[in-house]
Design a protein that fits this description.
Length: 369
């Protein structure tokens, strides 16, 4: 599947003119290629655009110009828009939920709302053994490690006053997420997630090490046994001395095929923060649906500001058989980032708090967007 970096410029323009706030709610599959219901998929995305435009208009009509109330109201519109796009995939393109495009849709949801990455988005991140229809790199694991909460493991080391030990601890602390990502996706071009910038930031943070982070090359096990930083994979990479071929440059791609061909349930209730709730009837699988391979993703997910928030669930409703398929069937809960992520924990970004978005959605009636 080839995906253009298409943005919905009219709506983006509205957000820029009114508040300077942009929700990256692009459709990474703008033609619906390979979806079980391409027309339904595109119609769903358009419906979300129309609803977000209406929501923004209500904010403009009911709140004072240039006020925090208006900004918070429009941020609420952003949240409803981002969450409802995920619903489009579950309804009409569920056979591609392991693809690069769906993962980026989920990442934009977490990133733009500043929400801790969690298992509430269905089928995200894909399981370790995802093959057919799966992205060449598990982007959910990458994002988890890029945004992982910094531990307090080095505080006691700092209190000791031993600068050399503190340097070694910081090399472990900032180096292990980089190693985890490179062990999972050593060859992939992860510019879409600003991974080269992440490496540069880490290099700047540990550049004061008096021995160039030698612990990562001579005794990386000490990062685990003594300092309690977990590794994934067999290699500990030193951010100050990466191999010449890292980070990788290979374009992201999808394996041909479908994540599964039987959704497994006749209906699905998806509940996502801030106030998205929908009972979805997944479209029937159609012969010829499926991911075809190449991917083109535009733009970069970056930045650290946002709001904090939790909540949301995925619940299967009704009953349905789980017929044998090439790669399994849909389930009532999403895959959690565990074995390949930094314990599946990501940072809670500083920001405005949850109250603004709940209040905004109550004001403009976006709960059923």
């Amino acid at each position: 599947m080839r995906v253009s970096p298409k943005l919905f410029l009219p709506l983006i323009g509205i957000f820029v003119l009114c508040t300077g706030v942009i929700a990256d709610a692009r459709n990474y599959n703008p033609t619906g290629e390979g979806c079980v219901d391409p027309k339904g998929f595109l119609s769903c995305y358009q419906k979300n655009i129309d609803a977000a435009v209406g929501c923004t208009g209500q904010c403009n009509n009911t709140t004072p110009a240039n006020s925090a109330t208006r900004q918070n109201c429009i941020l609420g519109c952003n949240g409803g828009w981002l969450a409802s796009n995920i619903g489009c995939w579950i309804q009409s393109c569920w056979n591609q939920v392991y693809s690069c495009e769906y993962q980026m849709t989920a990442i934009n949801y977490f990133h733009d709302l500043g929400i801790v990455q969690n298992g509430n988005v269905p089928f995200y991140p894909p399981p370790d053994d995802a093959k057919a229809g799966a992205c060449s790199c598990n982007l959910g694991y990458v994002y988890s490690n890029e945004t992982i909460t910094l531990s307090t493991n080095c505080i006691n080391v700092a209190a000791s006053g031993n600068r050399e030990q503190l340097n070694s601890c910081q090399c472990c602390q900032f180096g292990w997420p980089v190693s985890n990502i490179l062990n999972v996706c050593p060859k992939s071009d992860l510019s879409i997630l600003a991974f080269p910038n992440k490496i540069q930031s880490v290099q700047n943070l540990v550049g004061t090490s008096t021995d160039n982070c030698a612990i990562l090359e001579t005794n990386p096990d000490a990062c685990v046994t003594d300092l309690k930083f977990p590794w994934y994979g067999s290699t500990a990479y030193n951010p100050l001395a990466l191999p010449t071929n890292m980070p990788g440059t290979e374009p992201l791609s999808n394996n041909p095929g479908n994540a599964f061909t039987d959704f497994g349930k006749p209906s699905y209730t998806v509940i996502l923060f801030p106030a998205y709730s929908s009972v979805i009837t997944p479209a029937a699988f159609k012969a010829g649906a499926g991911v075809t391979g190449s991917v083109t993703l535009g733009g970069v997910v970056s930045g650290t500001t946002g709001i904090t928030g939790t909540g949301g669930s995925v619940t299967a409703t009704g009953t349905g058989g789980a017929a044998g398929t090439p790669t399994g069937t849909g389930t009532g809960s999403s895959a959690a980032a565990t074995s390949k992520s930094g314990a599946g924990v990501v940072s809670v970004r500083e920001g405005l708090g949850v109250s603004w978005i709940v209040a905004a959605l109550g004001m403009v009636g976006m709960a059923a967007l």
